[in-house]
């Protein structure tokens, strides 16, 4: 009896299995290939989205964004490609993303992400390369300021007057120039003071000899103006006050040389900082202060503005990535909509996710003005990197 019952159950199960269709996984790749073979990209698009969703990699989303650019009306593939690119934190991937839609304002984010990688490397050569590749980006100004910072740190480590002079000559308008000139003077001053602490150096004859050397060197036509100005200033030290050379100098126009060089450098720094500021923002405040105070204030305000720009871009990036996450559900349901249906939906909503994100891209600074500033300073920096003098090599050394 039990055997008959078991046989009956097995027979019934077999019958049910015969009438139950098997559940096979959908092969989106074959479906996409089939539609693409007929040239029907509109029909293939929703399945291509599903295929990219399964793989969820930058190459997969990139392929859809490029191949289906005409029918990717809501920008789903493009935005998903960006999210994968951003997650990769790779320079090559960011630069490839820039080629997907070269004229897209969204590329500001990719450029900003590239600059974050440049900041992480914190190498002078990388900042120079960023300025060369993206001369219109606000971050190009940040790269220039970083170059100034790194080179000045090298100069301070060397603590050599000629290295400080190389910094001043190479980076016209850098806000560190007054500090560099003062440090160069202090190094020379300490050397002289140490020399005259010795008994033999305290004689008027020895002081006269050194003063004459400084004076004659400063008056040579081929001498670096920075060295000349520094020598004239050294002659103002108390150890030379009773020398004939100083009396002679006071009777000549050269006594104004240091002040003239300092004023010219300060004027250049002021103009440089104002150019950078105007390139970043159309309007700046002119401060009625002394030269030194104005240099420091303008420099600080510029850096604060650039920091605010970086914070804003990072904040927007976070918001965008959260918004792209919300699109994933739409992608999962994408195969239910044809491109025509998507177009009708976009028209009804007036805006697609991509359109809304594009409109939210912050427009900061004037690209043309920034490019002009970069064009003025970059050639000299590149030349110093490629063919440095003995003292410039110290500034650009590893």
Detailed description of the structure:
- The protein has helices at residues 2-19, 28-37, 41-55, 58-67, 76-88, 91-98, 107-121, 124-133, 138-158, 161-170, 177-197, 204-219, 225-234, 244-250, 257-280, 291-332, 339-349, 353-359, 367-386, 390-395.
- With 398 residues, it is mainly α.
- Helix 11 (177-197) crosses helix 13.
- It starts with a helix and ends with a helix.
What is the element layout, followed by pairings?
Elements: H1 2-19, H2 28-37, H3 41-55, H4 58-67, H5 76-88, H6 91-98, H7 107-121, H8 124-133, H9 138-158, H10 161-170, H11 177-197, H12 204-219, H13 225-234, H14 244-250, H15 257-280, H16 291-332, H17 339-349, H18 353-359, H19 367-386, H20 390-395
Structural features:
398 residues, mainly alpha, 20 helices, 74% helix, rod-shaped
**What gap, in angstroms, lies between the N and C termini?**
92 Å
Cα shape? rod-shaped
- Which range does the strand content fall in? under 5%
Summarize the biggest pleated sheet: none
The whole-number mean of residue pLDDT values reads 76
Q: What is the H/E string?
A: HHHHHHHHHHHHHHHHHHHH
- The gyration radius over C-alpha positions equals 34 Å
Q: Which residue ranges are poorly predicted, with pLDDT under 50 across at least 5 consecutive positions?
A: 1-24, 282-296, 345-351, 362-366
- Overall helicity: over 70%
Q: Would you report the number of β strands?
A: 0
Instruction: Enumerate how many helices there are, as a single number.
Output: 20
**Class inferred from helices and paired strands:** mainly alpha
